[in-house]
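Oligoxyloglucan reducing end-specific cellobiohydrolase (Rhizopogon vinicolor AM-OR11-026), 620 aa
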Amino acid sequence: MAPWHRTAAFIWSTLAFLLYFGVTYAADPESAITYFDNPPGWLFFFEDTTSVIYHDVTFGDLHVSHNEGKDWARAEDIPSGQAAMFVEHPFNNRMAFVLTNGNTHYRTDDRGSTWHSFDIPQSVAYIPRPLSFHSDPTRWEYILFQTTQCTRIGWVDLCQDNTYYTKDGFATSPQLLLDDVSRCQFAHSSKDFRHDAHKDLIYCVAHDSSSVTGSHSIASRRLYSSTDFFATKQNEDLGIGKSAKGVVAFAIVSKFAVVALKDQTPGSDGDMLLYVTVDTKEWAKAQFPHASQARLRENAYTIVESTVHSLAVDVVLYEMSSIGTLFVSNSNGTYFVESLKDTNRNMAGYVDYETIYGIEGVGIANVVTNAQDVERQMVGKQLRSMITFDDGSSWRPLSAPSGSCSSDTCSLHLHSVTDAHNYGRIFSSPAPGFVMGVGSVGNTLAPYDEGNTYMSTDAGLTWTVAHDGAYLYEFGDSGSVIVVVDNEQATDTILYSTDMGQTWNPYNVGVQFRAKGLTTVSDSTSQKFVILGQVTRQSKQNGPRHAVIYLDFATLGRPQCGESDKEPWYARARADSECIMGVQQWYSRRKRDANCYVGDKFQDPEVREDKCQCVEHDYE
């Protein structure tokens, strides 16, 4: 061959080589690994942003990433070792707080880029949520802060909780709202609490008398309200006058304000009573007329995930406090009917019940099939999964994947809230219609490590096996990319799918690790994911081994979807009907075989609703 031709052949072969490997590189995800001394107590994404918080509770440090977990830096404005608690602002995605064990705390209004100190006269109260926020955008800097004040008398500390308030997000010194309280909360602390209640309405559970011993009787606890930051206050009599005492708890749940009190009337057994209001003008006692056993006892009920249409309460009816019964209310939250018997719960009060995100009326729960044997003989629970498509009016077993069952009692069962293995929601995300879970097919649920990973693309109506074995899972780019990773054994490989789980592609991240968590931005519209894991000693012998593994699937080289790549997807309760709860609920969703990315980052998929003819289960 002539020298020129040999040179040309070399150039073309080299170009082909580079093009080939260039395409191969472009078709792979991008990854990066950052190491930390300790696992996070919390990994938090600021909503609809690329900013992430990694809270090292062990060392009391806060780390911040502004590119969805690829690069990290410690929050230098907060002294090392001081970050005891991280609290996000639920309505303002720029603001968050770091609470310390002292009187000086920190706030950010730029998603963790800078932090500014503020002082509170007393220590943070030892409660799960010491801050209460206002949902009105004009009042986002209105914040309640619950503190604890202790006085040493001899060998004993006498303590009481007080609440302070700020109207400027602690830019100036906070003011005392009310002392000797157990809980204060803005009425408008839920976006669904939209009625004409006064914008500054605050409820407090407080004592009606002072105590020189530091302790109070339950009868002294009442519910008070104020619209002028307790310059004046009103005793909420709940429509029962002087008997409105013994308040145990107060909460804003969706559009409802709920009060639980312990019955103080002579001859009562200390049953719990629920009072509900939806307009803050008139309270009504919650009624359970068709459930003779429905006695609410202290620490024996849970208000579970509810909708704007109804309240859902799981009540312990057995002596065994890990088995409940789910009750669902009418539209004003005062009349309850039994929805599901023998629900599975744990001793902490968590219930195996979760609604499917973005699909009205659909939820998944686990029931104990041998409840009486568990109660009488203390045997192990046998769990069975159920699904509702009508807000709990009726339930049915989960359909097993085609061909996997040979008997009428066989169905699909999934591990749920009481056995969570990942961050966030258990089954679903804002990716429309996509549901996943770890479980088994049979008469009852098998142990987690014996389970497989299952997937539904029609909001739980039908299911397929996504992968053999128990895997963590997460949805990205509104479902155009799905990531799973083995969390039962060490691995160096994740799997991802771009065709709704029909095929899975492996990607080696370069180290052996045990997966502890898999997550992405809260609305599942990004192509970037974060894995939390612990790298094995074989892969990293020295230095920290707790790792954040960043994955970016924008490098796959897919074009952005056009209108021809999308189709309407309808939620269904049955294969032959497109109606759920009296409406057709549908989304515009990428077609299964469209090789493209959606690209609507930080834009929640929009549900459309068309009315359809009502049937029996649409009525209450």
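The radius of gyration is 27 Å. Residues 304 and 352 are 9 Å apart (CA to CA). ok done for today
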